[in-house]
Specification:
Layout (H helix, E strand, L loop, with lengths): L2 H11 L4 E5 L3 E2 L39 H4 L2 H9 L2 E4 L6 E6 L2 H10 L4 E4 L4 E6 L5 E5 L2 E4 L5 E2 L9 E2 L2 H5 L30 H16 L5 H16 L7 H13 L4 H15 L2
Parallel strand pairs: 6-10
Antiparallel strand pairs: 1-2, 1-3, 3-9, 4-6, 4-8, 5-6, 7-8
Length: 278
């Protein structure tokens, strides 16, 4: 049994989903049945998990912790050609901040909480406990690998792993820079003399229900979804003063159920108010 396969089996036993990488540090391509997602398995690889094909198809989605799959005939052929072991960080409950050069490492040491680090060919992997969406080039030389991505296994690394911090999650959010505000939730007051355009309470209730559903059903980009939902609610209902503390509490509860912190909710709300001039 080759060394890469032994490593893969050890990682799988520890609950880390693995897959082999071929020359060029890339996954093995889909088989002919799955080429172009003809199998209907995972169009554009937007959801986790392979189709029923026993071959190593769908890149990161092929990652598995099942030893019988890892040692099966189709995989055994791949291991003989493999050049490295990769793993699916999100599947292991992890996020990898991939620092690709010296400047990126200097930035990380000045900006991010210390955590487990693994040396790479050109830089370092900083590994945090927690899951988020994967985004490339969040800044020069910095990629985030977690859900729907793979990272090379380069050893156990050094240091103690820490929880995924908000500062890393914020790198993936395309919104105005987060700013900390007091934990008092500001609700826009009704403009004097302005008549509310909502003819019935049902109009606002439907809007709130749709906003809660949008947050609850988000599968990735949670930070961005929360901000955009707050922005949409305030745009539709913020100027007439119909929103109450109870409405905001419903939105915050939905966001926190998806893993958002109270601070991020408050910051996202404040940024939406500022953008709309409320």
């Amino acid at each position: 049994m080759n060394e890469l396969l032994n490593t893969a089996l050890d990682l799988a036993a520890a609950g880390v989903p693995v897959l082999p990488l071929r020359q060029g540090k890339v996954p093995f391509g889909n088989c002919r049945i799955c080429a172009g997602n003809a199998c209907g398995g995972r169009p554009n690889m937007k959801t986790a998990g392979p189709c029923q094909c026993p071959a190593i198809c769908h890149a990161w989605a092929a990652a598995t912790t099942e030893p019988q799959v890892i040692t099966s005939a189709p995989w055994a052929r791949a291991w003989r050609q493999a050049r490295a072991v990769a793993y699916h960080p999100g599947g292991a409950g992890l996020t990898v901040v991939d620092l690709d050069h010296t400047e990126a490492m200097v930035w990380a040491r000045a900006t991010l909480p210390i955590t487990k680090t693994v040396a790479t060919t050109r830089g370092e992997h900083w590994i945090y406990q927690g899951v988020m969406r994967s985004v490339n080039a969040v800044r020069d030389g910095v990629d985030i690998k977690s859900t729907m991505a793979y990272a090379r296994w380069l050893g156990a690394g050094t240091g103690a792993m820490t929880a995924l911090p908000d500062v890393v999650c914020a790198l993936a959010v395309k919104e105005p820079a987060l700013r900390h505000t007091p934990q008092v939730i500001a609700v826009p007051a009704r403009a004097r003399g302005r008549e509310c355009p909502h003819r019935t309470p049902a109009y606002l209730d439907r809007g709130m229900a749709m906003a809660e559903q949008r947050i609850t059903e988000a599968r990735d980009a949670i930070h961005a979804t929360v901000y955009r939902t707050f922005l949409a609610v305030l745009s539709a209902h913020g100027r007439c003063g119909c929103l109450t503390e109870a409405h905001m509490a419903r939105l915050f509860a939905a966001a926190q159920a998806k893993g958002e912190t109270s601070r991020h909710c408050t910051d996202a709300w404040a940024n939406a108010l500022t953008r709309l001039g409320l």
